[in-house]
Amino acid sequence: MSVAFGKGTARQRRLGGLLRRLRQSAGLSGPVLAARLGISQSHLSRVELGEAAATAELVDSWTQQTGASPADRETAVDLAEAVAEEIVTWREAVASGLVKLQRDALDAEATAATRMAYVPALIPGLMQTPEYATHLVAGDHPDRDDVAEAVAARMQRQVILYSGTKSLRWVIGEAGLRWRVGPPQVMAAQLDRLAALTGEPQLDVRVLPFERTGPVWHDHGFTILADRADGEPDLVHLELLTGLVNITDSKEIAQYGAAYEQLADLALRGAEAVPLIHQVRAELPAEH
Questions:
Q1: What is the location of CATH 3.30.870 in the chain?
Q2: How far apart are CA 122 and CA 178, in angstroms?
Q3: What are the DSSP E strand ranges found in the chain?
Q4: Apex 161 CA angle, 201 and 199, nearest 5
Q5: Contact between 38 and 32 (Cβ < 8 Å)
Q6: Which residues share a beta bridge with 244?
Q7: Which residue intervals of the chain bear CATH 1.10.260.40?
């Protein structure tokens, strides 16, 4: 089961099965219905298998094209609305292992031309050193024996930083620089890496200092995957204490996008952020 970014959840599989039954009952082949819906055959197949989220708009068109009964249409719409704000427990998410979570994230990131993340209290995963990531993952999952493999998979995801083919943007809170996930030498190396990445021209890395305040929403972190390929809906991904939330409702995604832009406007960008990063590094205890 793949759930890190909303793939393969129980509701999605149930919705996909219902939509497949509606298509078959209408006597429509996959290619014919895909053409009528304006989506690819591969995306239609993933929706029916529960591997891709079906938006409310797609479900509405699907039920119309297949002549669904009022009862089936209501069920499909209800499921689509539930999938649009899917919550998956961590127990479900890690059932297939921590490595699978990282590979799911890699797959999801590969579909998106634009990735934006607000990370208020940590260094983002795609910028983490192996040592920092090890302390973080082990702290989140102290009873797992696949931490090292998960960290290695996270490092593999970082290839995306240098592809130059995607819009990659981050707003990192000052607390993310100061929260000591590991010992001083680990934090020093992590801050050095972050400072170096701010100079990469293909990346938009910003740091939001404590002192820069304004009437801007900033309650929790989130990741937006936008401009996705092959009919995949845009997605907001949240990681909570007890589970994961995936949002595909277009209006809510727009709200998160607006919040991100407001935070980005307040933050220090690129070279402007380096003095603050160096300051935080200088305040670390001496290494022994």
A1: 88-282
A2: 8
A3: 85-89, 112-119, 167-173, 203-208, 222-228, 235-239, 243-247, 268-269
A4: 30
A5: no
A6: 88, 239
A7: 10-83
Q: Which CATH number fits domain 10-83: 1.10.260.40, 1.10.3720.10, 1.10.10.10, 1.10.150.450?
A: 1.10.260.40
Domain 88-282 has CATH 3.30.870: yes
Instruction: Compute the distance between CA of residue 274 and CA of residue 15 in angstroms, rounded to an integer.
Output: 48
Contact (Cβ atoms closer than 8 angstroms) between residue 262 and residue 216? yes
- Contact between residue 128 and residue 122 where contact means Cβ atoms under 8 Å apart: no
Helix intervals (H) in 158-228? 174-178, 184-197
Taking Cα atoms as reference points, which of 71, 66, 87 lies closest to residue 11?
A: 87
Q: Which backbone phi and psi does 144 adopt, to 5 degrees?
A: -90, 150
CB atoms within 10 A of CB 70: 8
Torsion of CA 215, 257, 206, 202, to 10 degrees: -160
Give the count of alpha carbons within 13 A of 107, CB side only: 16
Residue at 68: amino acid letter: A
- pLDDT tens, 58-100? 999 999 999 999 999 999 998 888 877 777 777 777 777 888 8
Which two tokens mark 5? 């970014």
Is 228 strand, coil or helix? strand
- Between CA 25 and CA 50 the distance in angstroms is 19
Phi, psi of 150 (to 5 degrees): -65, -40
* pLDDT tens digits, 138-187: 988 888 889 999 999 999 999 999 988 999 999 999 999 999 999 999 99
Q: Do residues 276 and 211 make contact, with C-beta atoms less than 8 angstroms apart?
A: no
Rounded to two decimals, the pTM is 0.80
Element (H or E) spanning 245, and its range? strand 243-247
H or E element at residue 204: strand 203-208
